[in-house]
Amino acid sequence: MSPFSYWRLMFHNLFQLVRYRGLIQSLVARELSARYRGSVLGFFWSFINPLMLLLIYSFVFTVVLPGIRPVEIEPYALFLFCGLLPWTWFSSSLLESTNVLISGGNLIKKVMFPAEILPIVSVLANMVNFCFGLPILAVFLVYYDAPLQFVELVWFPVVVLVQFVLSLGLALILASLTVHFRDIKDLMANLLTLWFFSTPIIYPMGEAPPIGRGFLNMNPFTHLAISYQEILFYEGPFGHWKWLLVLGVASVVLFLFGYFVFDRLRDSFAEEV
To answer: Model pTM?
Structure first.
């Protein structure tokens, strides 16, 4: 098969995923239901988890380690939540994607089941949890009288879309590679810890030294975190939009590359899981 024919077939398979939107919705609902099955509070944990995470980090940097907290960032809890909420979606999606094909082996072995649905479901299920956390974020924004502007809020769904495409591209790569290299799952858990502290979530970008800023700028989630912060926390125009658009283009390229890797390894999944 010529390269042109292969890419045309790949794009055809990609667009065919629209036919499975009903199946994707059902699997997302099943994933969310299974996640809280047997718990007393059920879906309320979707609201409680981000709030608990916020309270823990706020307690640590306000009571336990107040000297580390940047004093010029007030209210710190709101600043923290603007980055923690999307990070939880991002990190959970990547970590779960490393095991999604292995745990879904029975589905993959079915002849007509498109395996790429599984990492898509993982990213979407965590995106739903992110959306459940938005009402809590809205309460904090109102309580602290955040300087929101409609012109800047228009960019919010754009940031969410860029994060979705970026997460999906990485999830496809991780899901396909972990089938052959099981160590990636444990490696990813540790790498995400480093990634978190290498992202201006618990500290502002301005606190990093010049050398550190160069490193942080190479981190794609840095530009997502700063975008959320500028839209929801900082007063003034959204000045990070150029970085966001560049990241958006890079995320689309990464997604296509991720789907290419996934498609090339697809035939080996049934044997390995």
So the answer is: 0.90
Residue 6 lies in a domain: no
pLDDT, tens digit, 9 for 90 and up, residues 253-268: 999 999 999 988 888 8
Peptide bond before 75: cis, by omega within 30 degrees of 0?
Answer: yes
Structural contact between residues 118 and 140, judged by C-beta atoms closer than 8 angstroms: no
* Domain limits for position 82: 20-272
- CA separation for the pair 247, 70 (Å, rounded): 27
Length of the chain: 273
- DSSP 3-state assignment of 1? coil
Q: 212-268: per-residue pLDDT in tens?
A: 888 889 999 999 999 999 999 988 788 888 999 999 999 999 999 999 999 888 888
The domain tally of the chain equals 1
In a domain, residue 160? The reply is yes
